[in-house]
Amino acid sequence: MRVATWNVNSVKQRVPRLLPWLDDRQPDVVCLQEVKLTSAAFGELLGEPLADRGYAFAVHGQPRWNGVAVLSRAGLDDVRAGLPDEPGFPDPEARALSALCGGIRVYSVYVPNGREPDSEHYRYKLAWLAALRDAVARDAGNPAAGAAGEVLVCGDVNIAATDADVFDPAAYVGQTHVTPPERAALAELQALGLRDVVRDRWPDDRVFSYWDYRAGMFQKDLGMRIDLILATEPVAFRARAAWIDRQARKGTGPSDHAPVIVDLDEAPDGDIGPVVPPPSSRGTPPGTVRLPQSR
DNA sequence: ATGCCTGAAGGGTTCAGA
After folding, report:
1. For residue range A244-279, what is the model confidence (pLDDT) as tens digits?
2. Eight-class DSSP state of A288
3. Confidence of residue A142 (pLDDT cuts 50, 70, 90)
4. Radius of gyration for the alpha carbons in chain A, expressed in angstroms and rounded
5. Are the C-beta atoms of A209 and A260 separated by less than 8 Å?
6. Which bases of chain B come closer than 7 Å to a protein CB?
7. For residue A25, what are the contacts with CB-CB under 8 A and spacing of at least 6?
């Protein structure tokens, strides 16, 4: 099963890139962010082309900004829009949607930007991340209690987890996305037992998912890695490949973000014994580990 | 030169993005 996440920066403007990309990459599940449409307008725009391609979809939209969606041809059940006790600015915004796809609880999230450190919007960002952590904790279970579920948290987290995730740490001094409280909030989410599948696969590489439109930043590869696929261990262990699709950032009319993609092996059928712990982030890449195949 | 692009809403411009 191929799962992807993409901040499309207006799905209306991105239709000429999104549909050919679906045809080329053939993802089974796609998490979208910044659709910038109401749910009704999303359905009018994409209902038919998505049905033609075999995708069901769920949307949590709003008129101008934000908006998230999940497309799936691997099942789409128990859809949940928003987060429990979700903070707002001042009202809750369309930033989270989750559904069961192929037995996995898949989240599409668009974390608030934060604007300026210590601003109201920055405090909103931290509060929103705490609500996301609490929601995911209910699905992932408490690892200490041995109750981990199959969860993927996909989306634009608007945080660069480490200095290796920005083109130049000096360029971001005093900016959002790199401050210790933001990084701590992301670490708290990951501490539920979520692995960063792209960083696991590319521990020492320069991999970015966002490049500013201005000043040729993409052509110079001056970007940040802020779009993530986070997987609980039973899911991360099934990862055979994980990468950022830079091709989608090239050419005419791209989003300023590139898609992130992970390929998962089939779920084990339950008779293979205890799940083996995944490799450490500096150890053997998950792509080299083999689970016994069912049948 | 802290808006260098891009997009949305709406109106001849402003806000948002990271």
Report:
1. 999 999 999 999 999 999 999 998 765 454 455 444
2. G
3. low
4. 18
5. yes
6. 3-9, 16-18
7. A2, A4, A245, A259, A261
pTM for the complete prediction? 0.90
Helices H, strands E: what count in chain A? Answer: 6, 12
**A252/B16 CA-to-C1' distance in Å:** 22
Structure tokens at A123: 């405090």
Query: What beta strand segments (E) does A68-219 contain?
Result: 68-72, 77-81, 96-101, 104-110, 151-156, 194-196
Under 8 Å CB-to-CB from A267, ≥6 apart: which residues? A102, A103, A150, A238
Per-residue model confidence as pLDDT tens digits over A2-24 = 999 999 999 999 999 999 999 99
Question: Please, are residues A255 and A226 in contact by the beta-carbon 8 Å criterion?
Answer: no
Among A222, A279, A218, A208, smallest CA distance to A254 is for A218
The reply to whether omega before A27 is within 30° of 0 (cis) is no
3-class SS at A23? helix
| Beta-bridge partner residues of A69 | A32, A59
Those residues whose beta carbons lie under 7 A from strand B are A 7, 9-10, 12-13, 34, 36, 63-65, 112-113, 115, 121, 156, 158, 175-177, 210, 212-215, 224, 226, 253, 256
Higher pLDDT, A281 or A236: A236
User: Between the CA of A63 and the C1' of B9, what is the distance in angstroms?
Assistant: 10
Q: Which two tokens stand for residue A190?
A: 């990951």
